[in-house]
Amino acid sequence: MSVRVNWQLKALLPVLAVLLNGLLLFILATVSLGEMERHTVLVVALVGAIAICAVLLLTLGLLVSRPMLELQEKIQRVREGDLNATVTFAGRNDDIGDLGRNFNDMVKELRENRQEIQRLYRTHLSRAEHLATLGELAAGLAHEIRNPLAGIAGVIDIIGRDLPESSPAREVLKDVRQEVMRVNRIVSDLLETARPKPPEFRLADLNATAEHAVIFARQQALSRPIKVELRKNGDLPPVEHDPGQIHQVLLNLLLNAIQAIPADGEITVEVHACDGSACVTVADTGAGIDPEHLPNIFRPFFTTKGHGTGLGLSLAWRIVEDHGGRIDVTSTLGQGSTFCVLLPFRRAAAAGA
Questions:
Q1: How far is CA 161 from CA 155, 157, 176, 177, in A?
Q2: Which CATH code fits 202-352?
Q3: Which of 66, 194, 333, 343 has the most crowded CB, counting CB atoms within 10 A?
Q4: pLDDT tens readout for residues 156-174
């Protein structure tokens, strides 16, 4: 086991040794030597003093100055982008060695972080190209599907008017009409993903936007024992947002919450201020989200539902991101999920104007 010695002590040990020898010589010269010998001892003491200074300078140069010069050189290399630079004095068992080891560890972490950033950049670039291709494809498909879909819907309406009131085919047509509306909604989501509309910002009451979404959600939950509660905040100042787009975000979260509740349950929507931002939380008492699925729920086309498209949460994330905000999620299996939509009260550009 090596003994740790501070560099200051290492620098002083040679000096102390020389001083001790000089002191012994001086004592001998003053006690037992003659005049001539005293003169010789004084000359030796002078030479010793010079030697002390030389040893001190040499020791400081070896122990302190040289490592500092090397450290400055390696810092400059790191500044120029060389993250393979390391110092050679990291093996010393003193304070200077600690400095070297900390420097090498820091450079290693920087190198690993840069590699991770480059990997993420390549991944995101590939994903962006993939989404751009999907967007072009979705836009073309949406255009090609919508026109015949409108024709099918018109034919269904005509057939429905011509059928007798007692005809059992009316129920079938009702189901067909709902499926046509579902396909149209999917196509609309695809088109929205491919050609997103920029938000039309204005100062508006976030309470009213949330209330509008809750009213729609309550209509969807009429046939089920689900309570949708709204807690407004009368003290919340106006928030600069696109009410139509944020309504779409909240309604999507509310419909997902309704689908996540298998039987009876409760959904709570609360408007409040949080960490300097306006916040709308949507909390449900549903089945919750599997922890392994949680990191992927905002990815386009990711869905755990048999009938879902995986576009709703992706669109919600993009809309909130375009507003300069974010969506936070917490979920526990068997207990429910909470989505928190955070929006700045004013856009950064508008606030700086």
A1: 10, 6, 15, 13
A2: 3.30.565.10
A3: 343
A4: 888 877 777 777 777 787 7
